[in-house]
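Revision sheet: structure tokens.
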Amino acid sequence: MILNTELEHKGNIFPNKIVSFKKDVDKIYFYTENNVVLQVTVLRDSVLRFRFTTVGSFSRDFSYAISQSASRGYNLLEINETTESYEIITSKIICVISKRDLKTVLYDAVDKTLICQDELGFHWEESYELGGDIVKMSKHSEISESFYGLGDKPCQNNLKGKRFENWVTDSYAFGKDTDPIYKAIPFYIGLHSKKSYGIFFDNTFKTYFDFCQERRSVTSFWAMGGEMNYYFIYGPEMNDVIANYTDLTGRPKHLPPLWALGYHQCKWSYFPEAKVKEVTNKFRELKIPCDAIYLDIDYMEGFRCFTWNKEHFPNPKQMVADLAEDGFKTIVIIDPGIKIDPDYWVFNEGLENKYFCKRADGPYVKGKVWPGECYFPDFTNPKVREWWAGLFKELIEEIGVKGVWNDMNEPAVMDVPGKSFPDDVRHNYDGSNCSHRKAHNVYGMQMARATYHGLKKFSYPKRPFVITRAAYSGTQRYTSTWTGDNVATWEHLQIANAQAQRMSLSGFSFVGSDIGGFAEQPNGELYARWIQLGVFHPFCRTHSSGDHGDQEPYAFGTNITDIVRKFIEIRYQLLPYLYTAFWKYIEEGTPIIKSLVVYDQEDQQTYFRNDEFIYGDSILVCPIVEPNSKGRRMYFPKGRWYNFFDNELIEGGEECWVEADIDTLPIYVKEGAIIPKYPIQQYVGEIEITELKLDVYYKEGKESSMVYEDSQDGYDYMKGRYSIRNFNLIGKEDTLVIQQFKSGKFTTPYEFIELNIIGLPFEKGIVEVDKEIIDYSAIQSNIVRARKDFTEIRIFNKYCEIDLKSEKIN
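Predicted:
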């Protein structure tokens, strides 16, 4: 007879004392009396992995987030034992592990200052109903500590005082502080004492993060299953933390084609074909640059993926070719839901091969999406990913589509609680069968991965272009992203600004928002202000819900059209600058856009700044996010900054009022910067680049800049066929010196570089280009023209006496 039907809730359980330890190359194991094992892996001097098990042994070590090419190796590894603790010492970090309870304290190995320490440390709670453990970690928050990251959370940059949930969720018309939304990126950066560290909690179950909300001096994170498995990344610079995190989780596998960094136009939906061409023709007629046009779900036959509506698009191959002739690349949407239809070849293939997700007791999971009732491929199965990749052959190789946009891949399911799959759905998980509780957060990532591999195969020898709405850490290896179904409000303009900054410092730089708002309808002022922000986001696309009205750049009257055109033209002029920033992101992990705190963590005034950001390395942008504004107050980081439009010089380190009527935006360039520009094009490749322009901003002192160029598409750059121009600027009272160091085997199509010298504090006289003297004294302009491979340019004060033979200034 069963007398007690109540479940025993044991509450939190903690490790007890260490009874033994062992070292296995770069892994150190600590065993406790109550069967807890801590595995510490030294990946690099500044990166440690902490992995706990409560059952004495570890399960298969597998992660979708960690890149196979992540760097490994360290300069120093020592292990010391004292009566109270073990010490793991690298050249960057000292990790002290308590023998009594496995609590850890981490110090800077150089100056011995405290970086991070456990509060309760690792603990867990047995989950009888679900099986496994709820795993938990709590750490002390140091005095005045700030926190940043976690991906697309729609709130202010500094996360202190807030709690968050990571569960990828279709969140239509989300608002400020809505949580969770479309992405799960369980990575954050802590900053105190002007030093920063990062923690990446690689657990795909539903996770939570508390940044001193429940208890003012404690930050904690926990998961509803799986392992306590986290990586500790030490800076002390935030840029170094982000670079090491993106090294760990990966960076984009290839540069995007340059056209993907142009302006894109999208709507739900452009159809039939005549409407698509009406829109594209209007862009060319009004000379508004645009590189891509999007087809939403209405291009399909009954919303069936990989089909075409023959009534609306009778000859898609010819239409795509016609658009390409006019410079437009066609992007199409593909969702995960496959319509249950015995006359539909994709459905039949999936059914025959058992590629669809099943419930725990056997039947396929069924859900309503746009086509009606659907089955859903299990993208965690490598065979399914291979099949899915192959489905793109016709779209890409035969019809000529240039990019694919993955939507609804959280996965989103209509008219059910939770808006997604039930928890009991089963997944292959690359051979480690599991429930949806574990696979949910990576479902969209694995769909994007399969899409990427399909496009890479069938776009060859051109580069693939993929967009995803849902993501987990590491998704940046495969795809770009946008911030989801936002709303045409001023508040959402502010949210878009914060989200793009947060995504970038969370390792995902190729990001943008639906310019103008997806839901509802912006007025002309809001749309213009959103364009002014959006052209400084790496992914730049207008997208809207069709039932709310027109939202093309020309839809708001002549005045707004002229303003929008002006800023899209600025984007196209700055394409070589953005492309260079993208190259640095891939090579070095440097975020393409940086919150001011990332740019200068020494300045505590930056810790709570939300609006201003640095675009690339040298351009300061501050969007206007309120209606009827004629200007605003903005903070200038330390240093001196030139106004992008009138070259006025501003001293940084303080907040100032700046004028910014509807036709302008606060944009400033760091002194000493050299900004590359291309001529305005209506689309990438429209004209041959016959001259590279460099805006050279004078500085008394030294500064370095660079320009990266290649053929703008294809893979030749991976064989060394690229061009890198490194510039050193050396400014003195009476001279300006510009040195160039060229590398790479790519031959640029232009022969000359035009340098526009800005802020020169003296009147230009003689100019020396590679020892050759050119007398510019009679020319008023501060333009200098030189062959592209010059090594040194010297510009002298017109009123200095120069001994040309000895090249000395008297």
